Amino acid sequence: MAIQSKDVINKNGQQYHICCAKGDVGRYVLLPGDPFRTDIIAKHLEDAKLVAHNREHKTWTGTLNGVKVSVTSTGMGCPSAAIAIEELIHCGADTFIRIGTCGRVCPESYDESLEGVIITGAVRDEGTTIHYVPIEYPAMADRYVTDALAKACAKKGYKFAEGIAQSKDAFYGQHDPDSMPNSGRLHQRWTAWEKSRVMASEMETAALFIVSSIRGARAGAIMAYGSMNDHTIEIACDAIKILIENDKENE
Predict the structure, then answer these.
(1) 170-218, pLDDT tens digit by residue?
(2) Which of 25, 48, 27, 23 is nearest to 38 (CA)?
(3) CA-based nearest residue to 233, from 149, 109, 120, 145
(4) What CA–CA distance (Å, rounded) separates 81 from 32?
(5) CA distance 139 to 164
(6) Buried/exposed 178-217: b ≥16 CB within 10 Å, e otherwise
(7) Is the pTM of this model over 0.85?
(8) What backbone phi and psi angles, to 5 degrees, belong to 47?
(9) Whole-Å CA distances, 114 to 80, 101, 103, 220, 231
(10) How far apart are CA 219 and CA 30, in angstroms?
(11) I need a labelling partner for 124 at 20 to 30 A (CA). Which of 114, 163, 174, 198 fits?
């Protein structure tokens, strides 16, 4: 009989990679890639405590509006992101917002007034999610999480577009394609993303959307162009507060 992923635990009875167990994390989780960004994001939570740090996965748990909320780093790329999300779901999380940085792709994304993008869907230009579901299955954000992000953004008056991200595996495939033996294919595909109005290029969102969709969780993402800023964190936290209140009303 195949081992179930929920049964892959360490000697302390915790999820093997993130080293957390039920009760350690909230229903709502913010997901940066960089472990060091968890420290910054945790300052926006109330009474945040460090829960675990193993490999690239660092977790803090605090509260927003009196409800338990966590922040866990996924590391770089879809493989480690998928692991973190699977294990967080096993710990009881069901609502995720990815916070990160991205590059610009299509001409519309080069509008200098834009701070970044609320991601509505992802191009599955990576190798992880094909192990979950055929490539024809779309990587889509949850509409309620996206709506909460859009409302939080509008209330703050920050300028983030809504659009599609390209999730890739190879950072230097984008930034140094001419040195690659496969340069022709890389250039051809990049041109396709430009013409398809892809607004961002990053490395984790496809895994977040696919794993969340098939596991019955909700997920959204907000990405800043270039470097991380407090605006993305503020919007994500405000969106979590909106979701908390909406969920209370629907209970």
Answers:
(1) 999 889 999 999 999 999 999 999 999 999 999 999 999 999 999 999 9
(2) 48
(3) 149
(4) 10
(5) 10
(6) eeeeeeeebeebbeebbeeebbbbbbbbbbbbbbbbeeeb
(7) yes
(8) 55, 45
(9) 29, 13, 12, 19, 12
(10) 10
(11) 114
